[in-house]
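Hi R.,

Here's the chain you asked about this morning:
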Amino acid sequence: MIVTVAEPGLLRLPAPTVSQLLDDAPTSRFHRRAVIVSGVGFFTDAYDLFVISTVAVLVQGQWNLSTTQVSWVQGAAILGAFIGAMAFGRIADLAGRKRAYGLVAAIMIVGAVASAAAPGFWWLVASRFVLGVGIGGDYPVSAVLMSEYANRKDRGRLVGMVFSMQAVGLVVGPLIAMLLFGSGASHELTWRLLLGLGAVPAAAVLYLRAKMPESPRYQAQVHGTHDQAVTELADYSGGVITTTAVRSERTARLRLGDMVTNRNLLRLVVATAGSWFLFDYAYYGNTLSLPAILKTVDATASITVKLALTLALFVGFAVPGYLLAVARMDRIGHRRLQLIGFSVMAAAFLALAVIGPLTSILGLFIAVFGLSYFFIEFGPNTTTFVIPSEVFPTRLRTTGHGIAAGIGKLGAFVGVFAVPRLQTAIGLRGMMGVAAGAAAVGLLLTRILPEAGNRTLDEVSHHGHGKRDRRAIPTTEVARTPERVVV
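And the predicted structure, written out as tokens:
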């Protein structure tokens, strides 16, 4: 540790850790840079995942696909995301966040280009699966890297800003499709352009992430390279964070098996992954089936009208929900916001299930379904992404987030296949009843989670459920170093 000189008689506190420097740093330009780097990647994820609902309608007509084949076109990327999140979540804990970051961006570029060039059904499904592996890998790395750069006070807002780029992806896809339809482009050219354009932001991600240093917390707590972490952090922050000395904060060793054998870790896995699975089942199932749902409510609506209604739902309900979640999450509490969102989702879906006119009159359906969309974003769609980036210890943080995101995407995959079949078997109202049940169980699982708002990452991951007991998760072991010497 560097010795500092001070006036005689002054009491000097011990040197801070790298994590303490980050926890106490004011929200500054370097935080916004990290949001942009992570956010561009997540915009790409959202665009690629949700544009397929429009593409599937066009491809179905061109290739005469069955309902099952359409489900595979829509679900291949989601299935790939399940595998990618699990695999790259673990890779990012073992090899580093930055290395995983670049690799998933490259995979997304390959998948997008190959999808646009697909000559037939199986090529498209395989290409979308590859794309999904990259998308899934981006989930834990984007969330955790931003969480580990963030300060304690604004962490939810900063990670939420990354996730809110999903709103832009949701809007841009239908908007580009409408522009292409308006320009007179053929259906084949339209869907190929929609898929190929996903490679453009992915290429920007690859460039931006090459300039971003490794997570300072990961460097300090896992590798013990404290001086390097501080040097790179001082440079990246433009001098906002700087110090002459830091204390060691190497973390206790944790293995993958601890996710099962440690009681607190296992409960966190069940709560984060289970609530994300149930949420994604309802959200992706309903969103990717939205053209078919709108057709049930109004059989006369054209594809352009359905695109316009989809865009109206996103702009009028989803986007405000994202914005309010980012603005208020840290004040409301991350766990509490998820509880609120699941509660309103369950109530809205239940109303659609039991009140007949709500699914037969288009205006009423849009109002109630739109309300659910608002609280989806101002609730679990944002928080299921944020909370797993906070509650797991550093050595298992992307692993834990990857498991939660992967299981979540498995729920989305189930929803893509189940929702159209449920709509056929038990009708739109019955399908909404199932979605209400999923939201209610998600509400119960959320109650297991600790509150992470306005607490440091080490506090949240160490206490598990906010309790100091012998079952607490072992995390940081701050070395006992002497205080700065007063001369």
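The mean pLDDT is 85.

Let me know if you need anything else.
M.
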